[in-house]
Each structure stands twice: as structure tokens, then as C-alpha cells.
From TrEMBL:
Protein name: DUF2934 domain-containing protein
InterPro entries per record: DUF2934
Amino acid sequence: MTDPRERRITARAFELWQAEGSLDGRSLSHWLQAEKEVDEELAEEPLNDQAESVGLAGAVNPH
């Protein structure tokens, strides 16, 4: 069973492969690009969660 990060990388690598015409021979390149993109997204997620929490707290108690 794969973890959620690996599933996201697999899905993104597949999208990259399809976007390039589904040609063979670039699977490692697609995987590495997908891994980079997913890791960047995951690194940003806690920041997005914090911003949403602050926004909600400010809406409930503006002072």
C-alpha cells in the first residue's frame, strides 16, 4: 500500500507523461518532476492551514 504522498506523485507523473504525448523513456524525469511539485505543495500546506485558521479566528473575534 502506498502513502498519500506517493499516490500524489504517481498521479502527477502520469499527468506529465500524458501531457508530453505518452512517450516511453522519460518515466524517471516525470517522477522526479512530480516529486518536486508534490513536495513543494506539501511544504506550503501548513502555511495555508495557518492562514485559514487566523482568518477564521479574526472573523469570530476581530479584536
